[in-house]
């Protein structure tokens, strides 16, 4: 057996068993203390804005999977190198493992809310990796002899098996420790102020056009959480504190006992590119934030409400927006169900008119009254604007450039949004020609998107369709193309089609 192959196999086996064992231990020390998750979390928290935007543009809502796969591939390459070096001198191996162990320990310990036990998975993993690497690389350097070779390969197989059993076992155990049972047990109260019915005609029923109400399953998900926070409603509390006259702590039962309102609100992500799909419309059930703030009595100058989640993420919302009478909710229900875990179970915030990164705190446990001058929420030091009102936007859903169109009438359709201002007009043009007014569908309120359609007499050849919206204040969606960073993309969505 070639030395390179042997060293690489030994290194990868040692790394695999370290990660597998750590995964298992993390069942007991907390999912965020597993080295891959902890290191991944540090990466997520420190990637420069443009790289984060690149990841979202390239991998969409699979950005986390991409990060994990990339990390594992890199780690395997390093492990192979360390294994190969260990064949020359085991101290290279020891140094390599110590380095990776230290990165794992440091990452786990510096995650928000981590206790000393967070160091255990990486420490144990590194220790076991050291022993495995030593055993697999000791003995004759050249495995010329068939018996030696067989012994080595058996060793690798045993280690790989142990890695798989502990890793998959850990995964299995941790999925049993989720809050999905607690979620199923939640009985949502009946709203004292129900959502208005969706008017007939809100749904144009055009193929490819996004439905007026987005199902929970297809609702976009964006957050920094590599493992979903499992927040038990039994022990959940919401603290409203900071610069208030009257701090409040609420349990989940106390929250559910309050008068509930239900509203359709369209949530949008600031990272959404023009034409992108990081937007969705749902029926949210919850308690008006305004009522809780009125009870807490913010002090003068407390112009920012910082939402803080169970995993330490923060967003900053203008206090004035939360108190101006719009339907800002501490939501417990989404489309008639308890919040799905990935959308913030048991409680999240929803604020009509603001991008999610400044308002829509999932797994929320604190609302802290402070000022914009005194505190920067998570995305602000990372280059995003502290203020995030949603920009007027419109999107063409049908036709798509991949469609085979034939000459004659074609239904052009899409959605437009300007939450809490409302959409007054949507216009479409072909090949830079005159703007033509589209027909607006109905909508529940100015807090949701609206569907639109326009009948096009398509002629053979290549054509460019473009759309722009005007909000109810008369502001026309600007043509100038700007990236999502720092406060939301601008520009007109266009679709190039081929008519046969
Ligand atoms: N705890 C937590 N809440 C969060 C985030 C996050 O990273 N962590 N991301 C925000 C962002 S950027 C957006 S756009 C919305 C997305 O909500 P959704 O995943 O339910 O669609 O959640 C917001 N709430
Ligand atoms: Mo977002």
What's this, in brief?
The protein has 500 residues and is α+β, with helices and mostly antiparallel strands. It is built from 11 helices and 18 strands.
How would you describe this structure to a colleague?
- The chain is of the alpha+beta class and 500 residues long.
- It folds into 3 domains: 174 residues, no CATH class; 134 residues, Oxidoreductase, molybdopterin-binding domain (Sulfite Oxidase, Chain A, domain 2); 107 residues, Immunoglobulin-like.
- The protein has a 5-stranded mixed sheet.
- A hairpin with a 5-residue loop joins strand 1 and strand 2.
- Helix 1 runs antiparallel to helix 6, helix 4 packs antiparallel against helix 5 and helix 5 runs antiparallel to helix 6.
- The protein is globular and about 80 Å long.
- The termini are far apart.
- The structure holds ligand MTE and molybdenum atom (MO).
- The site of the ligand Nc1nc2c(c(=O)[nH]1)N[C@H]1C(S)=C(S)[C@@H](COP(=O)(O)O)O[C@H]1N2 has 18 residues, from loops.
- Strands of the widest sheet, in order across it, are 2-1-10-5-6
What is the count of structural domains? 3
Dominant shape: globular
How would a textbook summarize the main sheet? Answer: 5 strands, mixed
Secondary-structure-derived class:
alpha+beta
Summarize the helix and strand pattern as letters.
Answer: HHHHHHHHEEHEEHEEHEEEEEEEEEEEE
Number of DSSP E strands: 18
**Number of helices, where a helix is a run of at least 4 consecutive DSSP H or I residues:** 11
């Amino acid at each position: 057996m070639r030395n390179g192959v042997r060293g690489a196999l030994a290194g990868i086996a040692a790394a695999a068993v370290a990660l597998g064992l750590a995964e298992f231990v993390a069942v007991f020390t907390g999912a965020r203390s597993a080295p891959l998750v902890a290191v991944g979390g540090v990466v997520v928290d420190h990637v420069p804005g443009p790289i984060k935007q690149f990841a979202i543009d390239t991998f969409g809502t699979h950005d986390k999977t991409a990060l994990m796969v990339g990390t594992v591939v890199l780690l395997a390459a390093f492990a192979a190198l360390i294994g190969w070096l260990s064949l020359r001198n085991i101290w290279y191996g020891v140094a390599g493992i110590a380095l990776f162990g230290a990165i794992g320990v440091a990452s786990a310990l510096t995650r928000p809310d981590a206790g000393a036990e967070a160091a255990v998975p990486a420490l144990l993993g590194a220790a076991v990796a050291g022993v495995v690497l030593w055993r697999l690389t000791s003995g004759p350097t050249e495995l010329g002899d068939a018996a030696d070779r067989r012994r080595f390969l058996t060793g690798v197989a045993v280690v790989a098996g142990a890695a798989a059993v502990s890793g998959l076992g850990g995964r299995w155990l941790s999925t049993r420790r989720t809050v999905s049972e607690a979620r199923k047990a939640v009985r949502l109260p009946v709203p004292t102020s129900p959502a208005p019915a969706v008017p007939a005609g809100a749904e144009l029923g055009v193929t490819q056009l996004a439905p007026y109400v987005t199902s929970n399953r297809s609702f976009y998900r964006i957050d920094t959480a590599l493992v979903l926070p499992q927040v038990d409603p039994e022990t959940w509390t919401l603290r409203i504190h900071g610069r208030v006259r009257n701090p409040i702590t609420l349990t989940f039962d106390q929250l559910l006992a309050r008068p509930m309102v239900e509203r359709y609100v369209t949530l949008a992500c600031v990272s959404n590119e023009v034409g992108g799909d990081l937007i969705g419309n749902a029926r949210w059930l919850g308690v008006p934030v305004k009522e809780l703030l009125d009870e807490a009595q913010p002090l003068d100058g407390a112009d920012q409400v910082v939402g803080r989640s169970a995993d330490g993420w923060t967003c900053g919302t203008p206090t004035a927006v939360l108190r101006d009478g719009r339907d800002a909710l501490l939501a417990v229900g989404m489309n008639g169900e308890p919040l799905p875990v990935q959308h913030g179970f048991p409680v999240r915030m929803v604020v009509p008119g603001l991008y999610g990164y400044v308002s829509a705190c999932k797994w929320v446990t604190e609302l802290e009254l402070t000022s914009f001058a005194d505190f920067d929420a998570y995305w602000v030091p990372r280059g995003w604007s502290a203020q995030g009102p949603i920009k007027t936007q419109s999107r063409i859903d049908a036709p798509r450039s991949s469609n085979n169109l034939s000459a004659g009438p074609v239904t052009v359709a899409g959605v437009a949004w300007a939450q809490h201002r409302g959409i007054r007009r949507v216009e479409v043009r072909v090949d830079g020609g005159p703007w033509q007014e589209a027909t607006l569908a109905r909508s529940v309120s100015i807090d949701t998107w609206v569907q639109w359609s326009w009948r096009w007499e398509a002629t053979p050849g290549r054509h460019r369709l473009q759309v722009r919206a005007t909000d109810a204040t008369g502001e026309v969606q600007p043509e100038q193309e700007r990236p999502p960073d720092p406060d939301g993309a601008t520009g007109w969505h266009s679709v190039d089609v081929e008519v046969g």
